[in-house]
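ok here's Sterol O-acyltransferase 1:
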Amino acid sequence: MAGEDCARKRQSGSATTCKTPENEETQKRPESERSFQNASNGRVDVDRVITRKMQLIAEAEQLKPAFMKEVDSHFTEFVNSLVAKSALLDSSSSASPFPASCLEKELHKAKTLRAPPEHGKIFTPRRSLLDELFEVSHIRTIYHMFIALLIVFILSTLLVDFIDEGRLVLGFDLLVFVFGKFPVVFCTWLCMFCATVIVPYNLFVWWAQGYCSSSHRVIHSLFYGMLFVLFQTAGLGFGPTYIAVSYALPPASRFIVILEQVRLVMKTYSFVRENVPRVLSCVKDKSGTVPIPRISQYLYFLFAPTLIYRDNYPRNPTIRWGYVATKFAQVLGSLFYAYYIFVRLCIPQFHNSSQETFNLRGLVLCIFNSILPGVLILFLVFFAFLHCWLNAFAEMLRFADRMFYKDWWNSTSYANYYRTWNVVVHDWLYYYAYRDFLWFFGKKFKAAAMLSVFTVSAAVHEYVLSVCFGYFYPVLFCLFTCFGVVFNFTLNDRRKGPIWNVIMWTSLFLGQGVIICLYSQEWYARQYCPVENPTFLDYLKPRSWSCHVKM
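and the structure:
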């Protein structure tokens, strides 16, 4: 027997190893099985096994982020390409009021009429980013923290008023003031909107119908182009501004009028810019039907939360009226939030600022004390308008593309921040300002195109603030054209990593502090130091620099 032979060899002290069938089977087993067997026999160091296990777990955790990032990037590229191809197929194969031959030739020959790529912005059904993030309990808790901060502001105001007045003061005098003369605002908006519905659409129809049969097409186009420019500058440009100034509308009422003015100007330009090349292409191809959009399509575009015209947009099947009510309630809550921020953080700080002598120390303290209210106002403007207001109108119109903004808070460069903060306005500037500039002057002038877009955007922002506040103080224009341009080229897309996100947020905080501080000082300086017979230079000269001398 093999067992007895082994016993005799062990007794004789032989150094040879006895190989029984059981031993041979054990040696042929994998190392892992033998380790477990040894462990069961108590002959393996348990600490070594645990250490090895922890090393494997650590290596797996190190590989997981890279693996997930790689999968996510490939999946995103795949989905984006699939959506783009699907949208192009839908746009080319769906039923259309225009001839199929005209649409095909438009896609292939529009290169001479429009800036590439020919299809422009593609609208696809997608939710707003905050709606998706609020489904995560951790993100929703941040939203609850802002609500708690609003409750603290309300309690602080009520307690201070009760201590000072001996009773609860529930008046909202500031809100009543800034939104005053609302009937004038409504009548002005109604006139602007009716004129926008009637004049640009009919001018385009008359031009398109007469362009085919006209023997002097250049003169015909120049005539209607001049009429359109006249309407844009005089009707939508000068008229609302004159009413806002002559009727001395308060700040918030002016913002409503002027922002609607800018919105309607941008929308009418997009309508003409998108449809004129189609008419020129079909006339060039001698198509029998002139592609003129229906008035219903134009009306839908005027209310839709986008500045890029399309005949049709992706639509949702139903309207969630509860969602609409929630968004409008959040807009109303944001207004009261802004009210308490100004009452508790801004008015006490700037009410007597004009009585103090201007010095560098006071300016630095003012800027840093204005960072908190400035950042809160920034968040409220983003949440109330770009998320709540636009989503409410999108839901009522069943507008399915809700990408009004992207994750701008994760930006590591100002170039990415400008692209993601307000996607609605960025799309208009990109397709009609930046890309058309390159189309006219060539792709070699990308830097010049970018500077021109910055200049136009800064000028429009400063125009809105100047008219709404009633004075010219180009703080935002200087920040936009100087620091904004420098940061755009220095903090570009090549800057990655958390440190650049920290730098971006730090500069954004400081910028908001500068804006709130300087504009608030100028506002109170003009209240305390009025000029009896102001000249044109008095409107341009900052009053806050010299107001303390007169008091």
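+1. Residues 171-311 form one domain.
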